[in-house]
Amino acid sequence: MNKIVAMHAQKLQRPSLYWIVLVYVVLLVAATLGLLFKLDALIEIVVRYGIGGGRAGVVAALLTATTGVFALPYLLRMAVSPLMRIASFVCSFVAIAGWLLGAWWVEVNMGRSMGLLPILLAHSGLLLALASVWVIGLPVWPLKKRR
Prior knowledge:
Elements: H1 18-37, H2 39-49, H3 55-70, H4 72-75, H5 82-110, H6 112-136
């Protein structure tokens, strides 16, 4: 078995636009920290009102918080193993899917006045995630077969 080695990130596709990635990182960190600080109250609300089917809603909230943390190595271009870089890349989109799902639940259960801000944040997060991939590039280069 080969030893797992942390590799440096590939060069940026568009270095002058890295500020877009940093804006997304700030949004991701702020949303994840807010979710982590209010997670116990959120889970209590999800269970009490049966949002998302109860247990499925709890799993969705926990996955959104976890993927928000694990998305950072790809976005900050940390030295990690190639498989962790791909997992982090996937987590950056799963976190957004959790935000969209949560925003939809807020809109359905709280009405339009409360649900507009989470929907705007979730959609801006999706656009920033797509722009971040455009700036950083896809993390598939270490998985190419070597000859």
